[in-house]
Amino acid sequence: MTDSKILIIDNDISSCRTMERAIQQEGYQAIIATNEPDAVSLLIKEMFYLVFLGLETDNNDPLINIKSFSPSVPIIMLAHQGTIEKAIDALKKGAMDYMTKPVNPEKLKNILKTLSASHKNKLSSTQDYNYILGETPAIIEINRLIEKVAATNATVLITGESGTGKEVAAMSIHRASQRCNNPFVTVNCVALPEQLLESELFGHEKGAFTGAFTKRQGRFELAHTGTVFLDEIGDMPLTMQAKLLRILQEKSFERVGGTETLNIDVRVIAATNKNLSDAVMNGMFREDLYYRLNVIHIHLPPLRERKEDIPLLVSHFLDKLSHTYQAKKVSGEAMRLLYNYCWPGNIREMQNIIERAVIISQDLEILPVHLPPELQKSSAATVEPIIRLPDEGISLVEVEKQLIIMALQKSKGNQTKAAQLLGITRSALLYRTQKYGIPLIT
Ligand SMILES: Nc1ncnc2c1ncn2[C@@H]1O[C@H](COP(=O)(O)OP(=O)(O)OP(=O)(O)O)[C@@H](O)[C@H]1O
Questions:
Q1: Do the Cβ atoms of 67 and 94 come closer than 8 Å?
Q2: Distance 414 CA to ligand 1 centre (A)
Q3: Which end of the chain is more exposed for a tag (fewer CB within 10 A), N or C?
Q4: Domain boundaries in the chain?
Q5: Residue pLDDT, tens place only, 94-149
Q6: Which CATH class is domain 2-121?
Q7: How far apart are CA 31 and CA 220, in angstroms?
Q8: Among 132, 162, 347, 351, which is best to mutate for testing ligand 1, by the most ligand atoms less than 8 A from CB?
Q9: Distance between the two ends of the chain, CA-based, in angstroms?
């Protein structure tokens, strides 16, 4: 079971064995990796409940490396008296906690008990919002869709601007599916040059090209019985698109330089922030592949189109950060700035801004001064008077009606754009048009 595996990464084998015994006594399975490459290949293949990371493996920041392969796994640093400062630094980079060596088995067991209790709490609180955190109608609908598609093996295409949570959605589908205890393997199609991407996806045989000293399994093979998440699919080179199409159609492939045909059972979820139908028209994306991928389409709206979720997301991030830093709350004025901002980097940007604010505020409260200048600017722009107040006064209802009509005219009747111009959701716009009897066709 996924939840029962704990990975120990440390080159101090006798310490690993002590930890292994304590872990087993608590009913978990311990897996030991004595070097970073072994650890990475385990992290690609399996999902772990927890990782212990010894600082002796520290050459090119293994913490960051592990987080890139397994972003959500909690990591506990193992530190010597002399390396405690480094361990504290690791906490700032996202490690959950640290233990000093020699490891005290009782302390280790306590950590496992605390984690298990907080895991149970987390599970009961995540049930409130199911998969994607949010209460706006669009997110409720997406969560329903995630639940439905999770029960199938259908290919899913997830679209949305950068930072809207496409990977979170893909992972949610995997976790809610029958494949949840099998691998979830991510490939970022834009991060790798074409030749490397091919070997990364399909693996290679020994001697397939200069530098291929050993046989290597590709991500599809590693994901057998699980899910492959192809991020930034819109940037996949055309030659690779043809090979991907074959995998989707025939569920088979050959390693680079190999003749043996391998059959695999994987579910494919792809994501892009590009407009794939435009790419098809421009000849940059294969039409047949587009239809193959687009069996189920999930579109994640940008944060500015679901502003009502902003306070909920802010408190979610504050809550998460309170495990590492002192618990803080956001002042009313700062919340207003957060609400008014247009969030071009979406939820990722919000997460960074809240983390920065939590770190720099000395107080228990986050104030406007702790937010970056662009948020203050956006607020100044929104308060700039755009409507003149006549001497005889004007009713607010009338102002709202006029603004809605202006937004619909400006967007040439496009409801999504009009809602964007007003900083409200499309359903909030439709509600208001109905309330005031404003016709939708302008
Ligand atoms: N609904 C959500 N609740 C909490 N955190 C979220 C949510 N959606 C996204 N995030 C967080 O926002 C960040 C960006 O999410 P993610 O990587 O899934 O976005 P993306 O759309 O795949 O971005 P990109 O296109 O740049 O790859 C992550 O740190 C993720 O944990």
A1: yes
A2: 27
A3: N
A4: 2-121, 142-206+213-299, 304-383, 396-436
A5: 677 778 889 999 999 988 887 776 655 444 444 334 588 988 889 989 999 998 99
A6: alpha beta
A7: 23
A8: 347
A9: 57
